[in-house]
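task queued by scheduler; priority normal; single chain, no ligands, no partner chains; default sampling; output format set to structure tokens
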Amino acid sequence: MIIKVLVTPNSKKDEIEQLSDKEYKASIKEKSENNKANIKLLKLLSRYFGVAQSDIKIKNPKSRKKIIEIKK
């Protein structure tokens, strides 16, 4: 499954909101330096979809508009 996620780093809380079938918005407390926001995003997505973190791949890790591949 491939989804699009708009990430907002340095937010007040960690949450994922579904915007449409394949589009999500993620707010993350971590800053976007040293890959911290991407690591936290992987944790949030693995909990949200009930899969292991190793089953989630970020296609474009430097963009705020990420394309995520989830293996189920």
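post-processing summary
- The longest helix spans residues 36-49.
- The chain has one domain: 2-70.
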